[in-house]
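Subject: complex prediction, re-run

Hi both,

The earlier run crashed halfway through, so I resubmitted it with identical inputs.
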Amino acid sequence: MKPAPFEYHAPETIHEVCGLLAEHGDEAKVLAGGQSLVPMLALRLTRFEHLVDVNRVAALSGFGRENGTLVVRACTRQRVMERDAAIAAAVPLLAQATPLIGHFQIRNRGTVGGSLAHADPASEYPAVAVALGAELELASPGGAVRRLTADDFFVGTWTTAAEPDELLVAARFPVWPARSGFAIEEVARRHGDFALAGVACAITDGRAGIALFGVGSTPVRARDAEEAWLAGAGAAEVAESAVRDLDPPADVHATASTRTRIARHLVERAVTRAQEGQRVAG
Amino acid sequence: MTTSTAGRFVGQSVKRREDPRLLTGHGRYVDDVVLPGMLHCTFVRSDVARGRIIRVDTEAAAALDGVTAVLTAADLNPHAGNMQPTLLLTTPGAPLRPLADGDVRFVGEPIVLIVASSRYVAEDAADLVEVEIDSDPAVIDVEHALDDGVPIVHPELGTNLGAEMVFPISPELEAVLAGDNVVRRIFRQHRHTPVPMETRGVVVEYEPSVGELHAWMSTQNPHEAKQAMSRVTGVPAHLVRVEGHDVGGGFGQKFFTPREEMTVALAARRLGRTLKWIEDRRENLIASNHARADVAECTFALDGDGRLLGTYIDHIEDAGAFPVGATGGAGALVGLLFTGPYKCALASLRTRSVWTNTCGRGAYRGPWMFETVAREQMVDAAARAMGMDPLDWRRRNVIPTAELPYTLPTGLPLDMVSPSETLEQAAEIIGYDAFRSEQRRLFAEEGRLVGIGLGLYVEPSTGMMDPMGTETAVVRVNPNGQVTVALGTGAHGQGIETTMAQVVAEELGIDYEDVTIVQGDSAVTAYGRGTGGSGTAVIAGNSCRNACAVVRAKAIEIAAHLMEAAPDDLEIADAQIAVRGTPTRSVAWTEVARIAHLETARLPEGMEVGLEATATFKAPPFSWSNACHACTVEIDRATGVVSILRYVVSEDCGVMINPMIVEGQVAGGVVQGIGGTLYEHFVYDDDGNPLTTTFMDYLLPTTTEVPTIEYGHVETPSPTPGGHKGMGEGGAIGSPPAIFNAVADALALVGATIDRTPLTPDTILGAITTDA
Ligand SMILES: Cc1cc2nc3c(=O)[nH]c(=O)nc-3n(C[C@H](O)[C@H](O)[C@H](O)COP(=O)(O)OP(=O)(O)OC[C@H]3O[C@@H](n4cnc5c(N)ncnc54)[C@H](O)[C@@H]3O)c2cc1C
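This time it finished cleanly. Structure:
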């Protein structure tokens, strides 16, 4: 359980990071909190000649409001999402989701961008990003910046639409209107494990977002269920619709049918809770 | 709490003296041992469960900078001596070998040993070794391993049946088994593994010019390791020394000396170099030892009132390919103990240990605990079948204290136990009757599924198997009166340095702080049994007592001589040897110790100088302990998730040396039972590929999964001098069926049944099919 040899780089600016990624192409990998990458290196499940540590890049850390958007820079620690009252005020779902990620030691190191870029299908943040309609901001070697919607960003298990030489710079979460309700629900084998199934959802006047996680190769956006919800369907009906076309993976922790059953129940619970939140907020 | 039998030290919850160093990071584990010129090892392991080795190409690995040696079977196996443990040297077992030779027999089997300047380089070299294996169909399903046409795991043995024990079925038993109330169930217990926090590891120094082999090892049993390393390397035993220091858990895994440690010792001897091997977690999960993989068909014959008339158990245990210790089996005890603490006149059994192409079976806290699992789950099934409450069934069938001693139908003599008292105490603490009414209310009014389960057992710690039944203590009083005690134990979390000091201080009438326990080092302790099998309190404790008796008598004789008093009139208390009833006439313990060493002219005529004694204790064939576990659970019908609401253990381990340590030991076992029943599952696919090779997939319980554990104590002294009984394993024996029964009890509300563990959402939701 020792990683293969690699060269270690510790740049301090986004420009330098992009330069290193351009230079080494797919032989390089960004190292953020290391909570996913380091175990994979140690188990030699993956290896890279170059690790580009972005922890010293000041411009990659912190968050701020830009009009109706909360911009979370990629290397901001997950624990900031959990603890900072400004996050809970702007994007309550981020604050609700974070305690479900691993354990506090992991959230102290793990970053928001690392979780999104890693794109584990059972991760909370990707589902939150999809449910809320977030955008991901990517910098490429030439200095160009592009934005992708969360719907477009997640393309498969541990796979995103980002090119190997692109750096995730920030995630842009829209701040939903005051009269909104949010909920995230999941079932994991133990506290802190990746979810067997989970759902993040949000509702406001004229808009609903439902994204399931742990039940596909990416976060699964339940568009029909969103429409049914907006049209006033009850929680059970919304849940039924959300899982109708699910094709979840099976592994040692749960069969596909267990995941579907759990997912349906969680959608029902989350939708009910979000509605209640919206009612209280309004 | 303190108990009625509490002494000044024995019976007190003295804080563990090991903890300050362990909790502040100053423990000394194998990986902390760093020696000059030390090299690092790693193994290249098979990724095929069964197959023929076509080619092993080590050239590129050997050429890598920093690599000292790349060893294959040809380099080591011809030089290896017997690899079976001392206890089982003549028992037929798997054909053990240091490295795979010609074929591989489970995923994880070592094929190549790499020796390099660091573990990093060693792993780089491992990546460069090319192993080509032609894979053959593997034997994974133990229940079909004895079928016709199934491949043979060990061609040398010609059969997949490792061991078998069959008791004939008497005509009387046959008659009751054909009676009106016969309950038959098949229960399956899934495979799990001990998972000590410190993985296995060894540092071996061999200096050819001196001829001595010195090993530091994570072991429960330094003397066994010494014998094993001597046998495998050919270095005479008096030139082998094994030290243990702190050991971060073993749970049975480190009782015998495993294959990798012996292989590294052999390599050190061949190379004449100092080698370190520290197992990583993946290796520990896939290739150390597994346990608990059992299946049994159980039959209870009852009379119309639910009284047990006869039992039959047909048990199979999965031995894996290379079990640690002969067949690794505990099946005989599963069969012999199946009727446990219940009255039953007739019993018979068949138990078989079967080879498969999986990681070998080995000891794990309560190696034969499936007797309790199968029986207690049967009890609930039988009670339900007879329309009885499981507590009432147990009350009706448990052996009453007044009827002890009681001979089990398999012939084992049961005595000095209190199953019915612990049953009542556990039921009382958990509020059994109140829970039953609350359960009905919650189900009727809210549709909630809560359940209650019991697990009642008796546990023999046996002194029958040499060398496990004996321990030798050396009690040495230093010239200043402080006492050093040497024991052949290999403590790995039990607090032996604390409890044995309590016993010695109590016996000698001196202060606990003035007693030091030295153990875990074969060179400075007498040959001993190691630490395992719940034996320390009884066996090491009484060897200390026996040695103390000699020291004490001599100290009194010296004091009597000094005071011109009769030895019979003297007593030792608070480090003073005084005339009974006249405390002013006394000599200090320290003064006696000083005179014994430094003013020897004042000793009685002809008395030997010094104040020290060596004594052994041989355990009786059986000393039984017992306990009752009770727990309540809630099942989330929608998600299949089980939560434990309350957990109670009422135990009887005789006279407690240290109640806090007793409770700590019980807690540790219960946590393993919770893990084993709900979370921990070592999974192979049909081809023998392990699927749970990291802690992401092999799930251990954490603090958030474990409830507060409540304790009750019953104290029935054992017939051995201290009155103690074995209790290290019991927590892990009683807990799995208690949890299983609680879940089954909750599921019974909706007519659902379970017959296997682990109790995952899959299992639970699968059971509640009608609830979908
Ligand atoms: C025991 C345990 C439990 C966990 N449980 C959960 C859980 O329940 N839910 C959950 O969501 N996560 C969980 N995680 C994962 C955790 O959230 C990780 O922190 C996260 O997935 C990765 O973030 P990181 O900052 O550690 O990234 P790293 O591990 O450093 O990197 C992860 C991947 O993202 C890439 N990357 C990182 N930053 C960027 C960037 N700015 N631009 C481009 N690529 C980038 C890296 O190159 C790498 O491929 C768990 C981890 C552990 C160890």
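Chain B has a mean pLDDT of 95.

- K.
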